[in-house]
Amino acid sequence: MEKKKLFTGAATALITPLTPEGVDYPRLAKFIDWQIEQGISALVICGSTGEPSTLTDDEHRDVLRFAAKQIAGRVPMIAGAGSNDTDYAIDLARVAKEAGADGALVVTPYYNKATQKGLIKHFAMVAEEGGLPVILYNVPSRTGVTIEPATYEALAEHPGIVAIKEASGAIAKTVDTMSRVAGKLTLYSGNDEEIVPLMSIGAQGVISVLSNLLPAKTNEICTRFLSGDVKGAAAMQLHYRPLIDALFCEVNPIPVKAAMAALGFCDDYLRMPLTSMEPEHKANLLALMRKEGLNV
User: Fold this and answer.
1) Beta-strand pair 134-138/103-107
2) Which of 165, 188, 240, 282 is labelled catalytic?
């Protein structure tokens, strides 16, 4: 069963530039263009880094439509279409498909959660009724539920479910999963600190926060590995560990918003209950960015 591979390399989990008045569309356009100019492989719009949980329903849909128009097919666009309401997730996927998105990133239902049987039905319905190829997003630290290897194995048989964004940090379980689904689901790391480890068991890249500020370098980690330069990819993975740690020293996307504001791509503004980065953490983050030659 041949399935479409949505992308290979690094896809940026894009921030959404916000101001107290709403979405900053001129800066979003500028940021999308810069990412593509830097050679990013794909863009994820309204993933958790894009703050969809505090966008209004209209804003979420409008950002998907705007981004699709701005990207204009230059790179694949993956739309954040996750929800703990299956019907709502289906609706978001439909909007994204109509806008021109290439795939849907669908997180496990949060708070109300689901059984493994419920997860299978949820993802299958979004794939069938939403109309876009689905990337399963497993991030139990945020949702309180894990997709088990046997569940991945069952979902791999669905023609509309094409990939995994794995952000559990449970590498042994991911090895188990890949032993079951290799050749049926494309694996992407969902954690920047695990790009090379997961590529060693077959991942084709990463859905990344780091690539908001370093798109070319994050992509290079992936391309080095895939071209056979495992040592070079591993060296880059280790080199960026302090910066990655700084980007996750507070809950995402607080630090990356501070980073991108320093680079001029957004205001350092988040919607409550997220608050601005603590000054000492921000100072460390900016210092690490300067070490990488970023003009902050």
Assistant:
1) parallel
2) 165
